[in-house]
C-alpha cells in the first residue's frame, strides 16, 4: 500500500510543482526541491527542467493600439537535488534558478519602450537571473501517531542583470545628435538567507502536511560594465522639427563611450509555503498548496551607467503588492508503476498599476509518474494558464500608459529520480 500511494504522490508533486512554483507570480522561477528529504532510500537524486512559454504583449502604449508582439520571453528552470536520508534525519543539497525575468521590447513603437522619467533613454531589452544553492536538513521523531519533522537550512543566491536601451546623445557644441545603444552588465556577489519549516507524515494514508518559510536575501553590492555604441546616422533638428542627417558621424556599432554600471538594492522576497496531501480513497490522493510571497518589497529598480564622470540612470517602477498562490488537485494510481494527477490553481496578480505584466493567473496542470523499478522514477507535467487583462497608468506610478489583453502561458516539466 505504501508503494502504491508513493507512486501517486510522485505524479501529484509533478502537477503541484508546476502550479505553485514555476508560475508563482512576480519574478518567481523555481523553488528548492526540499521534498527530496521525504523520499524513501538512503541516497536519492532528482534532476529536472521546466520550460515556460509566457505569451504576454501590449495591446496599447500611450494610447497607440497595435500588435506589438510578445515581450515576455520563453525560459527554462533547471533543478537539481541530492539527499541523504534515514528515518530520523536527512540532509539535501539543492540548486535552482530562484528568480528571473527576461523582456524584449523591440516590437514596441520605435523598437523600445517610451523614454523614462530620469533619462532620455528607452528600454530595449532587460534580463536578470538569480541562482540559488541550498543545504536543508531534517530531524524527525516517530511515534504511534506519525512522524514529526523540523526542517532548517541555508542558501546562497547571486544576481546578474543585462540590459540595453536606446537614446540620442549630443556629440558637440552644435546640436548634433547621435542615436546610441547603451549596454550594461551588472552582477552582485552571493547574498545569504535561511529556510525553516515543519512537517507531519502518516504513511499509512499517504498524509503529509508541511510548512516552509524562506527568508529574504538582499543584494546591495554590485560591480559592472557599460558601453555606448553608435546606433544610426547623426542628425540635427531642422525647421519644423525635421531630422536632417549629418555626414561624418561614427558608423553604427562603433563604440563611443565605456564605463561602469550599477544597480539599486535588490531584495529577493521572503515567502511562506504550505502544502498538504492525503489519501481519501483507495488509490486516490487529495493535494493542496498555498504560497505567500512578500512582493511588496519590489518598489522601484534603478539601473545606472557612468561614463566620463557622468552618471545616467534608468528607472523601472513596480510598486507590487504581496502575492498569493493556491492550488488544489487529485492524484490517482492506476498500477504500482503508473499514476497521474491534475490540479487547478490561482495566482493573485501582484501588479497595482505601475506595471501590468503580472495580473491574475488561472492554471490547469497535470502530471504523470512512471516508476520503472525500485531505483528510478520518471515524471512529466504540463500546464496551461490564463492571464487576465490589465493596465498601467502614469497616475498609478507608471512612466507611460499601457494595456495588456487576456493572454495565455504554457509550461511543460520533466524530471528523473534515482534512488541508491
Map the helices and strands:
Elements: H1 2-22, E1 43-55, E2 58-61, E3 64-65, E4 75-85, E5 89-104, E6 122-142, E7 147-170, E8 176-202, E9 207-214, E10 217-219, E11 222-230, E12 235-237, E13 243-245, E14 255-263, E15 266-268, E16 271-281, E17 284-293, E18 300-307, E19 310-317, E20 323-333, E21 338-348, E22 361-373, E23 376-387, E24 390-392, E25 402-404, E26 407-419
Antiparallel strand pairs: 1-4, 1-26, 2-3, 2-25, 4-5, 5-6, 6-7, 7-8, 8-9, 8-11, 8-12, 9-16, 10-15, 11-14, 12-13, 14-18, 16-17, 17-20, 18-19, 20-21, 21-22, 22-23, 23-26, 24-25
What does this protein structure show overall?
This protein is mainly beta and 420 residues long. The protein is 5% helix and 62% strand. It is built from one helix and 26 strands. The strands form three sheets. Strands 1-4-5-6-7-8-9-16-17-20-21-22-23-26 form a 14-stranded antiparallel beta barrel. The chain has a four-stranded antiparallel beta sheet with strand order 3-2-25-24, with no helix packed on it. A two-stranded antiparallel ribbon has the order 10-15. It starts with a helix and ends with a strand. Mean pLDDT is 90; it is low at 1-8 and 10-17.
Whole-number radius of gyration?
25 Å
- β-strand percent reads over 45%
- Based on CA inertia axes, which overall geometry fits? elongated
Beta-strand segment tally: 26
The chain-level structural class is mainly beta
One letter per element, helices H and strands E, the order comes to HEEEEEEEEEEEEEEEEEEEEEEEEEE
| Average pLDDT number | 90
Which spans have pLDDT < 50 for at least 5 consecutive residues?
1-8, 10-17
Largest sheet: 14 strands, antiparallel, barrel
Helical residues, percent: under 10%
Straight-line distance between termini: 21 Å
Helices, by number, come to 1
Amino acid at each position: 500500500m505504501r508503494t502504491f500511494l508513493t507512486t501517486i504522490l510522485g505524479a501529484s508533486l509533478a502537477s503541484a510543482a508546476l502550479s505553485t512554483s514555476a508560475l508563482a507570480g512576480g519574478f518567481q522561477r523555481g523553488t528548492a526541491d526540499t521534498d527530496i528529504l521525504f523520499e524513501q532510500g538512503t541516497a536519492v537524486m532528482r534532476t529536472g527542467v521546466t520550460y515556460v512559454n509566457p505569451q504576454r504583449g501590449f495591446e496599447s502604449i500611450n494610447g497607440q493600439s497595435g500588435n506589438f508582439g510578445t515581450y515576455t520571453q520563453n525560459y527554462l528552470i533547471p533543478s537539481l537535488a541530492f539527499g541523504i536520508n534515514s528515518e530520523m534525519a536527512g540532509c539535501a543539497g539543492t540548486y535552482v534558478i530562484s528568480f528571473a525575468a527576461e523582456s524584449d521590447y523591440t516590437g514596441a513603437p520605435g523598437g523600445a519602450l517610451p523614454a523614462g522619467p530620469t533619462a532620455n533613454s528607452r528600454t530595449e531589452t532587460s534580463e536578470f537571473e538569480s541562482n540559488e544553492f541550498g543545504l536543508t536538513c531534517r530531524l524527525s521523531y516517530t511515534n504511534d501517531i506519525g512522524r514529526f519533522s523540523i526542517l532548517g537550512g541555508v542558501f546562497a543566491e547571486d544576481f546578474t542583470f543585462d540590459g540595453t536601451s536606446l537614446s540620442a546623445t549630443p556629440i558637440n557644441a552644435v546640436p548634433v545628435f547621435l542615436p546610441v545603444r547603451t549596454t550594461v552588465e551588472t552582477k552582485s556577489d552571493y547574498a545569504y538567507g535561511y529556510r525553516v519549516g515543519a512537517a507531519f507524515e502518516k504513511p499509512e494514508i499517504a498524509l503529509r502536511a508541511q510548512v516552509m518559510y524562506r527568508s529574504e536575501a538582499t543584494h546591495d553590492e554590485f560591480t559592472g560594465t557599460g558601453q555606448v555604441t553608435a546606433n544610426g546616422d547623426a542628425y540635427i533638428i531642422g525647421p519644423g522639427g525635421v531630422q536632417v542627417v549629418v555626414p561624418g558621424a561614427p558608423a553604427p556599432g562603433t563604440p563611443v563611450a565605456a564605463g561602469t554600471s550599477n544597480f539599486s538594492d535588490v531584495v529577493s522576497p521572503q515567502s511562506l509555503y504550505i502544502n498538504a496531501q492525503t489519501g481519501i480513497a483507495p488509490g486516490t490522493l487529495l493535494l493542496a498548496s498555498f504560497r505567500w510571497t512578500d512582493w511588496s518589497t519590489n518598489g522601484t529598480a534603478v539601473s545606472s551607467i557612468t561614463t566620463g564622470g557622468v552618471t545616467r540612470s534608468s528607472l523601472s517602477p513596480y510598486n507590487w503588492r504581496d502575492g498569493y498562490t493556491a492550488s488544489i488537485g487529485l492524484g490517482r494510481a492506476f498500477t504500482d508503476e503508473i499514476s497521474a494527477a491534475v490540479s487547478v490553481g490561482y495566482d493573485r496578480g501582484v501588479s497595482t498599476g505601475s506595471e501590468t505584466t503580472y495580473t491574475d493567473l488561472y492554471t490547469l496542470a497535470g502530471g504523470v509518474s512512471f516508476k520503472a523499478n525500485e531505483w528510478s522514477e520518471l515524471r512529466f507535467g504540463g500546464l496551461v494558464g490564463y492571464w487576465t487583462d490589465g493596465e498601467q497608468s502614469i497616475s498609478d506610478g507608471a512612466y507611460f500608459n499601457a494595456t495588456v489583453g487576456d493572454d495565455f502561458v504554457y509550461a511543460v516539466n520533466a524530471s528523473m529520480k534515482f534512488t541508491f
